[in-house]
Amino acid sequence: MKNLFLSSPNSDYEKSFKDYVLAYKESNDEYYFNKYKKGLDSFNEYLKDLYNYSKGIDLSQGEVITSTFWLIDNNKVVGVLRIRHEEVEYSGHIGYDISPFYRNKGYGSAILQLALKEAINLGIQEVIVTCNIDNVYSKKIIEKSNGKLLGRIFDEEENEHLYKYSITTSNHKL
């Protein structure tokens, strides 16, 4: 993990990103597979969509500007980061996922640290992060990053209970 960095989505990592998506299919994780499936079907259109989201172009009602980054290690996409420029009620500012093949290796903590740096660049002083109450790993990652528990919320649309955390970027050691 020495050469770990965030990259804007681009064609240099097309094969690696497609492998990333297929890892979710192999793991029977329909949620993330479906989230990224367009990248398999039409990679260039998928990149265009991500670019448009990052610039606020053609957003649907209720959606916010969202910058997407790929976590790269040894020239492979091992994680995906989404930073919403405004807080979204049940999703907060930051969302990330790590490939099923790269979990439990420190990538979750690394991607959140890099996300906080990007949040500072966007002028976000208090980052809101949520996680499913059953996601013990994500809970540990957030708390290790000085996440302060604000409470428990219920997302009716997704039918799940979530923990809601705040991380103050100005007090954060980056």
Structure description:
The protein is globular. 36% of the residues lie in helices and 32% in strands. The two termini are 17 Å apart. The chain is built from five helices and seven strands. The strands form two sheets. Strands 1-2-3-4 form a four-stranded antiparallel sheet, sandwiched between helices. The chain has a three-stranded antiparallel sheet with strand order 5-7-6, with helices on one face. The relative contact order is 0.13. α1 runs antiparallel to α2 and α2 crosses α3. The protein has 174 residues and is of the alpha+beta class. A hairpin with a 2-residue loop joins β2 and β3.
Descriptors for this entry?
174 residues, alpha+beta, three-stranded antiparallel beta sheet, 32% strand
Quick overview:
The protein has 174 residues and is of the alpha+beta class. The chain is built from five helices and seven strands.
Secondary-structure blueprint:
Layout (H helix, E strand, L loop, with lengths): L4 E3 L6 H13 L3 H12 L1 H13 L10 E8 L2 E13 L3 E7 L8 H15 L4 E7 L3 H9 L3 E8 L4 E9 L6
Antiparallel strand pairs: 1-2, 2-3, 3-4, 5-7, 6-7
Helix pairs in contact: 1-2, 2-3
Quaternary organization: single chain
Strand content: 25-35%
The major sheet is characterized as: 4 strands, antiparallel
The number of helical elements comes to: 5
By secondary-structure content and strand pairing, the structural class works out as alpha+beta
First and last CA, distance: 17 Å
How many strands appear in the DSSP assignment?
Answer: 7
- Principal-axes geometry comes out as globular
- Following the backbone from N to C, one meets helices and strands in this order, namely EHHHEEEHEHEE
Radius of gyration: 15 Å
